[in-house]
């Protein structure tokens, strides 16, 4: 029997650690302060059961019943009901009395029996903290007795002082092994060997995750009171996916999730044995270029110094992450299709023709239009050495592509427009037929305003920037609250207004629609998200994502 497949049913129980994390983000929508919902500890105690060669471990550090505010929407009740529907277990009666403040799910090994001939069979371990060991032992006995009544053959063994119960399941049932270890945890796994290994890890501390120098260093980055934490051993994750990474810079990653009075903050730290090369000096405040980005923006990216972005460790992280997740770097072209289209249309190379001379502040923005598949864009760059020559080079590229450089004025502001003459057909009366006319099409504009050079895709966007006062993204309350949650100094921000950018993102990343269906409650309440990189450790790259939700 394929044990990886057979454990899928029970793995739903472990998925509570992930589902509750998503549900928790709506806690404050129902009238209670999120400040009361914090983790009981900053580190998962179940790490002592997990091998230091484990590819991934995810932990919820709060009891699910602390999310009682969700009961009015019945999300948590439905989850509990569906979780144990087939087992005959009643959550409130059989589990609630003893369940503690931690639920940890881990992939402990890539192959339980280490036999390549029968395929890869990962080991799964679910650890539930218990506050009443005797009641939790009663639960384990009850669970397996019900499985025996359903046709499973039970096996009981004593291993290093711990009673292990497992079953030789019928094909239609899930293979399961369970035990209560000491006074602290109830363990379940998809094979008795996984439980035996977990017990060995406790009794030989140099085997478990807490003895890993990478994990020890990563744990120091965890904030106090985090609601959840995940640790990934990146090279082993890649091996699990059967991938050969073209560039392996980062060894491990730790992610923490914490509630904030204004939303949800997910912080992550990537660890490496190499020195980190920052793409630019850290910023203590938002760049001035943002004053020219309208509040109606769907996506805004800001920071300083694009000239060495391609060689930075942030870029190397992107290449390693996309290769690990997708198996190739082709995803870059899918996610950055608008930029690829611009390069193709203009015959330019963004790193060489633009990024190379941007050494000061910059801001890039997209303003989605419901009627158009291609969003309007804005690019603002601070005047510095090389900018004037860079602008002249872009004018030359436009001219070589058959565009004319024409001057015009908007509210007495001198503008340079890249224009193209095109023919248009006009309907006439039936006798004369159609007639042709010549129209001027604007393909882009730029102007010098204050200490910045501003580029836009169209005349309307340039006019909005120059004539609408006190309506920039800096004045947007959502943006101000979002960046206030991000530590400073930092490397700048990526700000996404979810409602305005949703259609655009779905077109570029079709799989996002499926993700939205699976996480419907979260995406229905998502207002915006803000990403930033910060931290000054020499061998780590730290950043965060702040999710601002409705009514937060």
Please describe what this structure looks like:
- The chain is of the alpha+beta class.
- 30% of the residues lie in helices and 28% in strands.
- It has helices at 3-6, 8-14, 16-24, 75-84, 91-95, 133-149, 192-203, 213-219, 234-240, 313-326, 330-335, 337-346, 350-353, 387-400, 459-467, 477-484, 498-508, 511-518, 520-525; strands at 56-60, 99-109, 123-130, 153-159, 162-168, 177-181, 185-189, 228-233, 252-260, 263-271, 299-304, 361-367, 376-382, 404-410, 413-426, 435-449, 452-456, 493-497, 526-534, 540-549.
- It has a 20-stranded antiparallel sheet, with helices on both faces.
- The longest helix is centred in the N-terminal third of the chain and has 17 residues, at 133-149.
- The chain starts with a helix and ends with a strand.
- Mean pLDDT is 77; it is low at 1-37, 69-73 and 325-335.
Strand content: 25-35%
Helix content: 25-40%
Largest sheet: 20 strands, antiparallel
**How many helical stretches?**
19
Overall average pLDDT: 77
Kindly state the number of beta strands. 20
User: What shape does the CA trace take?
Assistant: elongated
**Spans of at least 5 consecutive residues with low confidence:** 1-37, 69-73, 325-335
Radius of gyration: 28 Å
Distance between the termini: 48 Å
